[in-house]
Amino acid sequence: MITISLCMIVKNEEDTLPRCLSSVAGIADEIIIVDTGSTDRTESEAKKFTDLVYRFEWIDDFAAARNYAFSLATQAYILWLDADDVLKPDDRLKFLELKKRLDPSVDAVSMELILSEDRYGNVSARLRRNRLVKRERQFRWIGAVHEYLEVYGNILNGDIAVTHRSVRHDSDRNINIYEKRLAAGERFSPRDLYYYANELKDHGRLKEAAARYDEFLVGGLGWIEDNIAACGKLADCYHGLRDKKNELASALRSFEYGAPRAEFCCRLGYSFLQANDVRTAIFWYELAAGMKPASDGWGLSSPICSTWLPHLQLCVCYDRLGDFESAFRHNEAARGYNPDHPGILHNRNYLLHKLGGSTNSGGKE
């Protein structure tokens, strides 16, 4: 059985840290908490779980703080989590089993990160991160903001998921760090440029964000998953700016980096549906519905875009065409994935009535 050091950096996490640490009970052989300047009860909450609580002077550099936490580890493997991460009970059991059987030749284990779920428990956004690493390899964190763990060697893609359940965050922290660096004359790497654009978008500075996404894409040096994601985010910016032409062009731009993905097919389907070009919308939604959800993708993905969502929208499309049998068939396909969704249940009652000869109208979108 391997041994594990859990290494975390925290600040003002009194509400989430106990939940996180309770969810990983029995997994870590030591827990190392590095506090970067809390002013609440984070430190006292941490000490309920471990005596290994340290202070780190904040220098606007997340990688520096994480590397310091890693330097304190003494066990064979290092696990990292954020305070608003949790392991669901099934994933905790999988992790305990992994701890028993992991081949010591493995240098790193990647795990899914579930970023959001709908109220029915369907995953709406996920990606993959290297989560458990061999200490002796001395892997390092890179990047002052939106840092990443650089690993190589024998990497196992695990079936364990970490679920992110944010309560709150400092919404200005990251953008302030980026803008301090810009003011100091720093030239951003492609990765920093992409994440700075994300911060601008999240702060509603859509024109600036669009310009930065375009600069990132034109540079041609980004990671392919960031390139694809940038196209979607650029489309979001233009949607917010009510620029439908560039919104559509940005979605299509994603095809420069690979085959169409379900997320973009649904986006295109929605665009054409809004323009009342129903048959073109059907083409894109049917393409999305025929795709399999990515199981091990490293980029951000939305499984609902290849499961119930395109079928729900196909129901809407066929209803508009007056093809109620096809609308019902697709609504039933959506219900197979999401049986309690109120829109799907509404559609079912409405279409059963239609197919029985009623003249009522109005499928639910």
Automatic annotation (TrEMBL):
Tell me yes or no: is Transferase among this UniProt entry's keywords.
Answer: yes
Gene Ontology MF, one: transferase activity
Question: TM segments?
Answer: none
Domain (Glycosyltransferase 2-like) ranges: 5-126
Q: Which Pfam families match?
A: Glycos_transf_2
* UniProtKB keywords: Transferase
Record protein name field: Glycosyltransferase family 2 protein
Which source organism? Answer: Paenibacillus hemerocallicola
